[in-house]
Write a structure and sequence with these properties.
Number of helices: 11
CATH topology: Rossmann fold
Helix content: 25-40%
Number of strands: 9
Structural class: alpha/beta
CATH architecture: 3-Layer(aba) Sandwich
CATH class: Alpha Beta
């Protein structure tokens, strides 16, 4: 949630500071160090403007609305590769932009994934009428339209190989994590082409067990214990009790802002990067407060949506000291994301089993500040491999 408005100008200047910090990567020669290295493929990046003429952009503040939805899109892909490509669709957080996860996208593309990220019309930093949460019910449809466009060969987003329609995953950070969970499970908004989902510090307290019963999609939550924006205790800890095919990767002392690639460098020396994020978030939410629940459009109990009693509000608690360095958090994020994707979308049962073993056992052993738990998902993977 919220990264783009914090500025990029300081990144280069901070690089020298980062170099002087204690090592933030995995032990040399470890499996994690090998997996963190760039893959064998050169990466190309393409930008395009997609227009969905079938759905409107609603009015928002001073913005009168539009009959279509304009979606600025970036695609990262291997420059040259044989065979169908697995596709990962990334959803950015509130007050952020589609380039939020550029380091993660480049890492995945170097290992053979096509990664596409769309800028949501009304929740990005520069949205007309001001960024709003009230368009959240439209964002899963934006993901579906992007998948349609890529499968159809959208102009400007050409790929070296076709997309494999059986290997499509969705990932998102914060509000984008909520969007990802909706597109994977919501009884009306979900896209059945999404075969795996990763919510990075996404809100989940509004989902009951019923919500996760509509589709058996493997879900990984990656969460941080020092997250001041999306409370860990309310959103991450209870997930395994509600979602039978879920797993949880926890980063001890990680923060919300530490997950954003945009802020990985210039917030290195902040005691807790979420202090910066909360100032921006509180200003934005105050400006758009109309007294209504922005999630009411998602449905109610019949959809598995809980509209009240979500636990601690964003930025309501104290900011914990001793936060994980964002550079380390980004590296652990890359390791967890790619391992889970490989365990779900890998080309062979052996690859899927080996990467699941890495995620569940090797990564926590090599990184003391990472822990893993799952409920039901291993038996699901086993039946998929048989």
């Amino acid at each position: 949630m919220l990264a783009a408005g914090l500025g990029l100008a300081s990144a280069a200047g901070c690089a020298s500071l980062v170099a002087g910090l204690s090592p933030q990567g995995p032990p040399a020669g470890s499996e994690s160090a090998l997996r963190l290295a760039p893959g064998p493929f050169a990466v190309v990046r393409r930008d395009a403007t997609l227009v969905d003429a079938s759905r409107p952009t609603p009015a928002n503040g001073s913005f009168a609305g539009a009959p279509t939805r304009t979606l600025e899109t970036t695609l990262w892909a291997p420059e040259s590769i044989a065979g169908p490509l697995p596709l990962v669709v990334y959803s950015h957080g509130f007050l952020s932009l589609r380039h939020e996860a550029a380091p993660l996208a480049e890492h995945l593309a170097s290992h053979g994934y096509a990664v596409a990220s769309v800028e949501f019309p009304l929740s990005n930093w520069s949205a007309p009428g001001g960024p709003t949460l009230h368009d959240i019910a439209s964002q899963p449809g934006d993901i579906g339209f992007l998948i349609d466009s890529l499968l159809a060969g959208a102009p400007g987003l050409s790929l070296p190989a076709p997309i494999d329609p059986e290997r499509i995953a969705a990932i998102g950070l914060s509000l984008g994590g909520l969007t990802t969970t909706l597109v994977a499970f919501h009884p009306e908004l979900r896209d059945p082409r999404v075969r795996a989902a990763i919510s990075i510090a996404g809100p989940s307290a509004l989902f009951s067990p019923r919500f996760f019963s509509f589709a058996p999609v493997p879900l990984l939550m990656i969460a941080a214990t020092n997250d001041a924006i999306i409370d860990y205790a309310s959103n991450a800890t209870p997930l395994l009790e509600r979602a039978p095919h879920a797993a949880l990767l926890t980063l001890a002392q990680g923060t919300h802002m530490g997950f954003s690639g945009i802020t990985a460098l210039w917030l290195q020396l902040w005691p807790n990067p979420d202090t910066v994020g909360c100032r921006q978030l509180e200003r934005s939410l105050l400006a758009q407060d109309d007294g209504g629940n922005p999630f009411a459009a998602l449905g109610g109990a019949g959809h598995g949506i809980v509209l009240t009693g979500w636990g601690r509000p964003p930025c309501a608690g104290e900011f914990a000291s001793g936060a994980m360095r964002p550079v380390r958090q980004q590296r652990l994020l890359s390791l967890g994301v790619r391992a889970f994707l490989d365990s779900q979308l890998g080309a062979t049962p052996r690859e899927r089993r080996e990467t699941w073993h890495y995620l569940a056992e090797t990564l926590p052993r090599e990184a003391a500040d990472a822990s893993f738990a799952s409920h039901g998902i291993w038996s699901y993977l086993g039946s998929a491999d048989s």
